[in-house]
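pinging the channel bc i need a second pair of eyes. not urgent but kinda urgent?? the chain im working w is below, pasted from the shared doc
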Amino acid sequence: MHLNIRNVIFIFTHTKTENNLARIFLLTCLSVLFSLSVIAQKTVLLALASNNIEYKPKGFYIDKVVDERLVKTTMGEKVKGSNRDLFDFEGHAQKYLAAVLETTISKDKSKQSIELHLIESTISSKFKNGLWITNVAITFGIYIDGQKLVDYTGTGKSESNEEPEKYIGQFIAKTISHDLKTFDDWWAINKSKIPTSDKVKVNVVLSTKSDKQECIPYIANQPLKIDDFKGVPQGNGPEMAITASGIGLRYNSVTTDGQIVLDIVISPTFNKNFSWFKEAGKNPKVLAHEQVHFDITALKACEFVNALRKNNFTKADYTKDLEKLQKQFEDETKDMENRYDNETSHGTIIAKQLEWEKDIKGMLERCGCYK
């Protein structure tokens, strides 16, 4: 029995009540009638015939089924007259489909594991003029490690004097079989381009070249010259010269045989246009102080290269880890140069200046990057 709740609402909203007791009585009736209406809407269970899932994957196995729909308690609606029932699987879609596929498709763990996601289902079956008119649209997606690779949507229509549950179950089973076959063909062509290995392979190069005219790359035994400082002196402070140097980073990634390969180029460079000398500072002593600033940059660039080679990058975090390491060595370079300026008083404490020159030269020789 189906109760039309709209009639009850009409009575409630248009009946004048003389006291609170009458209001309570009407509210109670409305609550009871609404409950009966909900109870009257039953669930019609669907079932998949396992022999309709004919295709057996060659290159992968289904490790998990996920229902990512917002409403997971129904697959669609069955309407006959005033009766509106809901289609669903026993235990709901995720549990039911997982159980069916578990018994239908073997888990060959030598192959790639995937997740089959139910993204959307729209099933509508209406009884009209002695026929069940059924429309089905269902979308499945295939994921690896949380990343959606592809999705497929199957649509179908049926007009029959038979109950629609059998057709819907067969349609869903055949859709799954079709999608698995389609993905298997796609996977055979594209699997080498999809990162399935968690580990990232890293190739790091320390560059001794620059594609920018204003930049001089760091090269051992090629010290800076005063003429390399092309910038205009800034401010009225006590500084006789400024060295603008930094560690450049470029990288790109490709996927080969299922593994991300990260090619990184590290470039310690000196920027001529932002580096300057005041006339009073153009002498070998000040130049020697500025050279150590560039040497510190080169030393930290080498340490950065070694850290990159030792780091265990993963496909989920390699971009974040790369940025974190870059920031770390930028900060370390800045701290070391500030300490150098403070301890030497910008090169004016001769003993400390000579000590720093010796120490940095020794560290550069030992670091192994500039032989």
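so Residues 1-39 have pLDDT under 50 and may be disordered. and The two ends are 90 Å apart (CA to CA). — does that match what u expected or am i reading it wrong
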